[in-house]
Structures are given as C-alpha cells and as structure tokens.
Design goal:
Elements: E1 11-17, E2 31-36, E3 47-49, H1 52-57, H2 61-71, E4 81-87, H3 94-100, H4 120-126, H5 141-154, E5 157-160, E6 163-165, E7 171-176, H6 178-181, H7 185-191, H8 198-205, H9 212-229, E8 248-249
Parallel strand pairs: 1-4, 4-7, 7-8
Antiparallel strand pairs: 1-2, 2-3, 5-6, 6-7
C-alpha cells in the first residue's frame, strides 16, 4: 500500500457504505462512515446520513479528510493519513467505454461473463463463488457515480491496480465488498478485536435494517485496515488485471476454488 513508512502521523482506516446521491429521506439506505485506527480502536462515533454536501463543499483531499473525521465526531489535527475502503464500483468496464466510442465486442454470452456489464475484477469474483453487483445492470448507478466522483475530485491518481491516491498522498482509496467479509472466519476473528463501546457492539453484530449501513461501513474499515496490517488475509489483483478498471478487495477465505 502507498502509505507512509515510519511516519509519526496517524493513519486512520475509513469504511464508507455508499447511499444514493439523494438518500437524505431514504430510511433503508444512506451513506455510513466508520473509522478505525492502527490498534483497531473505534475512532469517534459511526455516522449515517448523506455525504453529498460534504463532497460538494470539500476544497481538497485534506479538507475532505478533516470533514469526514468531523462527521464521526473526531477532531482532525491536520496531518492524518486515511485509507478509505468504499462499498461501490469505482470504475466502469473497459468494454463499455469502448462501446460508447463505437467499438463493440465480437460476441456475448452469459450475463456474468458480459464485459459490458461487469469489469474483469467482478468476473474474476464470479468464478470464485462471489456475486458482485453491476453498476450497469443493477440499481447501484447512483452509488457508483458517487464513489467515482470522490475519486475524480480527491484521489485521481492510480498508484496500483485497485489503489487510488490524492495529490498529497494523504488519502488512499480502494474498493471493498463487505458481503464476503460477513462469511469470512478470519474477519469474524478480526471483528472481535475491535475496541468499541458495548452499545455499539450490539449495533454492529446484530444490526437493525437501518444499522445495516453502519455494519457494512465497519466491514469496509476492517478491509482497509487489513490491507496494511493483515495483507495475507485479503485477495490482491493478479498482474493481468487492468488498473483502469480497479479491483474489489475481499477476504481470501471467502473465495471458493475457481470454476
């Protein structure tokens, strides 16, 4: 991960479960944020609402980090580094972008193999027992453009496949998928190590429908933390994966052998 080595500046791990652009009045699905530190302490308080205003008003990545931590009731000191795992597609399929330029593929088969509907990372996961959603086929276009908007404004540089960086290198963004983490034994053990108030333990381990967003954000924060502290527990992109399409990070033990 492109993170500072030996730096004295704190690193925080932010999980963002993404709601639609206008999710303010949606009781079932909104943006949610959870922040962890290096020692797996919960930082501040989980937050749920709509990030649209925050994304509109943030001037740069430093200001965005300060605002995100502020939403979670943590006062930023102005030097924090953040690794942010976002639960939404952060890129579109290459074949779809080529199609928009008039370049079609020669033949199409099953839905989950359709390169217009799914990126290579999603088709890689299909072969291993995980069924990610498509920003084209499924009803997550609003969420996907919201995540892509954050990348374009605040973390536009591809550092490696699946990793985007801000201009000042204080913000690293990746794409996480919390559903596979829910059935991962390694992540079940990791979840028990997070230090948080007992009232939040109940919320995160047995969430109500409204709290599901916060639980997914928590799992994304754990994925972000694992990239640096438990890299062997996470599936990393093969060398052949196209960097412009990104990569969906999931626990290794949530995968089945490829079919």
């Amino acid at each position: 991960m492109p993170l500072p080595t030996g730096s004295s500046q704190p690193v925080y791990y932010v999980g963002w479960d993404v709601g639609g652009w206008n999710c303010d009045a949606n009781p079932a699905s909104r943006d949610a944020l959870v922040v962890l530190d290096d020692a797996l302490n919960l930082v501040g308080t989980p937050w749920r609402g709509n990030l649209r205003t925050t994304l509109n008003e943030a001037r740069d990545s430093r200001d965005l980090i300060d605002r995100l931590l502020g939403l979670c009731r943590h006062q930023a000191q102005g030097a924090e580094h953040v690794v942010m795992a976002i639960d939404t597609p952060l890129a579109l399929p290459r074949a779809l972008l080529a199609l928009a330029r008039g370049d079609a593929v020669s033949a199409l088969g099953r839905s989950q193999e359709n390169p217009y509907l799914y990126r290579e990372t999603e088709r890689w996961l299909f072969q291993r027992g995980i069924t990610p959603l498509s920003p084209i086929k499924d009803m997550i276009g609003s969420q996907a453009t919201k995540g892509m908007h954050l990348l374009a404004r605040f973390a536009p540089h591809i550092a490696a496949c699946g990793q985007w960086l801000s201009d000042d290198r204080t913000l690293t963004v990746v794409e996480g998928y919390p559903s596979p983490a829910k059935r991962s034994p390694a992540f079940a053990a990791l979840r028990q190590r997070v230090n948080m108030p007992a009232t939040l333990e109940t919320m995160l381990h047995q969430p109500t429908p409204k709290q599901q967003d916060i639980q997914d954000a928590w799992l994304c924060a754990l994925l972000a933390w694992s990239l640096r502290h438990a890299a062997q527990s996470v599936a990393w992109p093969p060398d052949s994966m196209p960097a412009e399409e990104g990569w969906i990070f999931v626990p290794v033990d949530s995968l089945t052998p490829p079919v």
